[in-house]
Design a protein that fits this description.
about 120 residues, mainly beta
């Protein structure tokens, strides 16, 4: 079993920055892909970013490219999402997830483990 716990959400003004953290307990294998998703009220959960734990390769949704950066610290068993130049449309609950079998990284069913979520609110 893998457990994920997000933290770092909060209220920021448009143009501000925030860093989310995802603490991972249990075994994290070098072949895992870790992802961040977000969900706003009345909307489907959408892909934000992903990283290969072993290689460090990253993928981003077009809506966040150039503004968000995903990273991981193997020594701390933690995945981060640095969010810069935040916009009101970034407002959502953000979820950390683990994709242990390297399935399609844009699809939520590919991720077998999920955190509880952390709220990000961007004011205008």
């Amino acid at each position: 079993q893998v457990q994920l716990v997000e933290s770092g959400g909060g209220l920021v003004q448009a143009g501000g920055s925030l860093r989310l953290s995802c603490a991972v307990s249990g075994r994290t294998f070098s072949t895992y892909i870790m992802g961040w998703f977000r969900q706003a009220p009345g909307k489907e959960r959408e892909f934000v970013a992903a990283i290969s734990w072993g290689s460090g390769s990253t993928w981003y949704a077009d809506s966040v490219k150039g503004r968000f950066t995903i990273s991981r610290d193997s020594a701390k068993n933690t995945v981060y999402l640095q969010m810069n130049s935040l916009k009101p449309e970034d407002t959502a609950a953000y979820y950390c997830a683990a994709n242990p079998k390297n399935r399609l990284l844009l699809r939520t069913p590919s991720y077998e483990y999920w955190g509880q979520g952390t709220q990000v609110t961007v004011s205008s």
